[in-house]
Amino acid sequence: MNWQDIFATRMGRMKASEIRELLKLLDQPDIISFAGGIPDPALFPQAEFKAALNDIFASGQGTDALQYSVSEGYKPLRDWIATQMAALGIPCGADNILITSGSQQALDYLGKLMLSKNDTALVNWPTYLGALGAFNAYEPQFDQISANSNRSATDYVQTAASHGGQAKFAYMSVDFANPTGETMDRRARLSMLDLANELDIAIVEDAAYQSLRYDGEAIPPILALEIERTGSIEDCRTIYCGSFSKTLAPGLRVGWVCAAKSVIQPLVLMKQAADLHSSTINQIAIHKVASTGFDAQIEKIRATYSQRRDHMLNALTTHMPKGVTWTKPEGGMFIWVTLPPHLDGAKLLAQSLKTQKVAFVPGRAFFADGSSGNTLRLSFSCADEDTINTGINRLGQLLQSVV
Amino acid sequence: MNWQDIFATRMGRMKASEIRELLKLLDQPDIISFAGGIPDPALFPQAEFKAALNDIFASGQGTDALQYSVSEGYKPLRDWIATQMAALGIPCGADNILITSGSQQALDYLGKLMLSKNDTALVNWPTYLGALGAFNAYEPQFDQISANSNRSATDYVQTAASHGGQAKFAYMSVDFANPTGETMDRRARLSMLDLANELDIAIVEDAAYQSLRYDGEAIPPILALEIERTGSIEDCRTIYCGSFSKTLAPGLRVGWVCAAKSVIQPLVLMKQAADLHSSTINQIAIHKVASTGFDAQIEKIRATYSQRRDHMLNALTTHMPKGVTWTKPEGGMFIWVTLPPHLDGAKLLAQSLKTQKVAFVPGRAFFADGSSGNTLRLSFSCADEDTINTGINRLGQLLQSVV
Hints:
Two copies of one chain form a homodimer. Chain A is of the alpha/beta class. The first copy, chain A, has 14 helices and 13 strands.
């Protein structure tokens, strides 16, 4: 049987990543890894989850927790999230919230909601690799967006039309983005809104890392800035994606979309058809842990990760040769390194794994056009001070020898 | 903002169901409902799940359970499922298993895997409503399959081509199907395999209810019959979808796909892009409960549901007027009732909710072409003997008055 004749055309877009193959070597215990984008499991509120799960059964919620539930999500959790959103300048109700299985599912659903084949998704160069992967299933074209560029709206429209579709949305990670660690300032957010208005497209605002700010002043989400202009979430084009994966725990797969009801209602129908609903017991457990200890958990995470960021920034200053530059993130988990143009991150990784036993993610995969191979992403979330110093020192030695 | 201009063409297929709106009335406590297709929560192995979750934290698995995990699913669970599959005549390994968030997600993924716009999915008339919903997102055409019909392979091919695509797979629920309660016999399964071979299409075998057999002899899954012919799962066109929702609990959202690695591998890439992985903690909990108490749980469910099926069949015999017929399922949760042709299930539901306070699901929605309105689905899974007798008696009175 030739499955290639049976598979849909979209499957041509789904390729196994060479990088992931390479990173399988990370199982080796002597490798120092700055590759993962995962939270430090030592910071998980384990006792709180254990207590919450116990409480579900002790308090008579056991049958509800194990049963089917509504596609839009557990109402008390949606209420709690709506309150959090209001505190961010996004007044809304539970009807503006859809619970998803992590924010990765939100990206998949938003691609499914808006992208017909050959429509265009506007993304940053570089952008979150998982967003490109999620959108790819709907066979779009990608175009580079930059709110600060001089490209006219007409140019975006014509480029999209030349690919046989229309621009549907701009996707961006706004705070301490994966992979760059950079944050859009207020002016860039407002410019983005202006451009989206002009193009009459949606904005997909990925706020997965928003709670992980270590210094600097918080900037309102794009959705909050848009509500300042329009007066109501129902009149907004921005679709906000949140997640508990970086704050409480990723293994429960709970995230959310916050948007106008005109967006949430079709997403609820989509979720019903796609997986009925996210795990009931996990939503109840997340609600219990979030509603009693979210702020304390955030403080704990921030204290640890901000130190690790500082250690890594210091180590980079100490060990990197001239010609190598990097971002200085105010939060999140990532630092983005730019090498001299003649170097290639993927080749460097192969070499680094062999001689230095240090892992990172080469930057090319984060570019929809596969450009800018002279970049790499470092994560500081899971490494202690000694590991960071040793690893960055070794990486610096390698770079000294090739720069 | 006009969201209709932004939404993908596929969204035109996603409509809120009138039936679901009607069934929202079920919250009223005086309604007797045979509408839901859900397991009786009183039968959930609550104590076992509570113990399993406690054990996860007590045994040091807490951090793993709360962390990201691999897209293919928790290896010990895949191993356990592979052993179960082997016992059904499907020798396979963990690499032949993908864990999904319920078998609803498997249907969504299989539509995504195989259906380009205007490709044809072959389905039974009637078929599982949720399968039509899942596939609809990929904008297919539906054609009616019946292994016992005299339609030639050429006819299927030409019909699919006339819709601008090709037939990709035949979907069927094989044991005690939702909605009919009927089971494909061995001969029908073999005929289906012959037709699929001739058409060179895949078979999607939905085995969600397979464990719920109350009497009669078990029939090997289509995939097992195909392996008897080909000698190896790797040479099979049948894709088997299983679920823990009807046996252990649906609220954890754990199901699986079992198929050739040529199918599983692209599905793993798809899952990685769509939601990364199913809940880690839920997969571990399901594995603990399944590996220690699956058989006992199945016995408990069978004992209860088989009695309820008997009560409902007896009540139908007692109370239904002449001209009304129904299926006699050997398992599962559903009985399918056919009314005289001039009656309409949806109108009857509206009337029944008003005057009889009895709910069921009108049959039309289960037909891809919206035909056969003179049908309805009754579920016996959640009703005790008295409720069944009272409800069927009332329904019989209504039917007496209109037949």
